[in-house]
Amino acid sequence: MKKIFEVPLYPYKRHADEDASSPVRRKVVVIGAGPVGLAAAIDLAQQGTEVVVLDDNDKVSFGSRAICFAKRPLEILDRLGCGQPMVDKGVQWNTGKVFFDDRQVYEFNLLPEEGHKRPAFINLQQYYFEEYLVNRVRELQEQGAPIEIRGRNKVSAIGSHPTHAVLEIDTPEGSYTLEAEWLIACDGAGSPTRQMLGLDFVGRVFEDNFLIADVIMEADFPSERWFWFDPPFNKGQSALLHKQPDGVWRIDLQLGWDIDKEREKRPDNVIPRLKAMLGEDVKFELEWVSIYTFQCRRMEKFRHGRVIFAGDAAHQVSPFGARGANSGLQDTDNLCWKLKLVMDGKAPEGLLDTYDAERIHGADENILNSSRSTDFITPKSEISRVLRDAVLDLSEQYEFARPLVNSGRLSVPCTYDGSPLNSADALDGPDRTRPGSPCPDAPLGDGFLLDKLGDKFVLLTIDADAPDVIVEEGIEVTRLALSIKDDKTLALQQRYLGKHESGVYLIRPDQHVAARRPAFDENQFRHAIRRAIGKE
Ligand SMILES: Cc1cc2nc3c(=O)[nH]c(=O)nc-3n(C[C@H](O)[C@H](O)[C@H](O)COP(=O)(O)OP(=O)(O)OC[C@H]3O[C@@H](n4cnc5c(N)ncnc54)[C@H](O)[C@@H]3O)c2cc1C
């Protein structure tokens, strides 16, 4: 049977735009039907914005690539209507184990806290993730949403103008020109858009190679993340093992810098390496083998007039910590509501510059974490290695040393501290819900909090009075009234009130906190709304 990544999911079909006598201007064009481009398009289409996705391919990602999807992206995918198939298919895991040489030094639990709809992480092949996004596009199309994917439409030239962008597109039947009021470039780490516009992409190259093998095997390893430093089967290097659905296991072996990549990728070299790790008797089949090197870098700015970059096109990190696709989804989550308000004339164009500010803050946090993990995993000098090994030795017995071990700090969402959209914190409540934070989930009697937030501004009141609706600058803010009386698990109290008896939160369409106070104050909340849409 063919694998999902071998089947064209959005085959080329000639479009009327190709035969138009003058270039057609579309509202939003997204370049790239990778996870980030598809998420952006779904987000916009759900809000009724016309969007066209162009991709030079017609299939989902070849081979697995990303496998770990964190809680926050799953919450975003819930908002986009495709979180459930991810969780249904994905392998859930919370436990990570760290090994040094031939012994386990410690284990950790990613989500000791109860009361979240989504798990800390799931493992799922990137091709399934993209398939579910394409399915969601199809579903939206059936509901009449203005969204389309044009397969085998390769963007070959771009002109950027103050009011629009112009794209030259190559198809199997020739070329055509298309205009876009707004262009979102999600065309991956090698971003042709970035290159065509002559934009920078600077950062650090890590001199190392990693062999990735996805193998199909029957094995009784548990659903945990296992990371080895200097294991007997890969001396002086590292290794990682993760379980994926369909009996597929991800094995990641560090190889060092000076290698012959083509030789290392050959099955007659890969298989003995895997046997040394798994044991001679374990039966497996190779699904996908690849060798990757990585870089940590980003564009100086993500917004260039009418062209906005997201995902790997805007920033790139090492896979340690699973921050690539995860952070790309946080980009589109941040961007799409802002773009919609700007397009509807409800917010000034400057609101889009806060996408730059907030997501560059996120990218820098990811690059910092990813670089630190990489430096720990692959020490750059003998003295660093000695220190690292001492930390690993200590971590076996002493808890204080464990936070110093860095086998990839796993992706957590960024808090937009210092964002110009935040109002000053007037509640002095729990730190994790300060302005700029992504709302933590909490169980409610009839479901979960995050299912009731998102896509629009919400005024969350907990044991506080407020009007059911406030309209400010054309923005309708609806109230979600909750009470601690119904908070059986105390999650709402602990996550949103702390020592207070009541609280009122202004929550953005991307489920981030914009403002909070102990009680409703109309004047203050009207200011907060104006501020959150870039009008103050
Ligand atoms: C080995 C490995 C492991 C990883 N593990 C993880 C992980 O566990 N978790 C995680 O979150 N991330 C992980 N990542 C990163 C993740 O794969 C990327 O961050 C993610 O694919 C980025 O998505 P994107 O949509 O920005 O870009 P891409 O997935 O690269 O998609 C870009 C799209 O643009 C299209 N395109 C390019 N040029 C043109 C053009 N000229 N015209 C039209 N279309 C074009 C391409 O065909 C492609 O479909 C991993 C990456 C690797 C390599």
From TrEMBL:
Residues 27-363 form the FAD-binding domain. Keywords: FAD, Flavoprotein, Oxidoreductase. It is an enzyme of class 1 (oxidoreductase). Pfam families: FAD_binding_3 (PF01494). InterPro entries: FAD-bd, FAD/NAD-bd_sf, RIFMO-like. It comes from the Bacteria. The keyword Oxidoreductase applies. Its cofactor is FAD. GO terms for molecular function: 3-(3-hydroxyphenyl)propionate hydroxylase activity; FAD binding. The keyword Flavoprotein applies. Its EC number is 1.14.13.127. NCBIfam families: PRK08132.1. This is 3-(3-hydroxy-phenyl)propionate/3-hydroxycinnamic acid hydroxylase. The lineage of its organism: Bacteria, Pseudomonadati, Pseudomonadota, Alphaproteobacteria, Rhodobacterales.
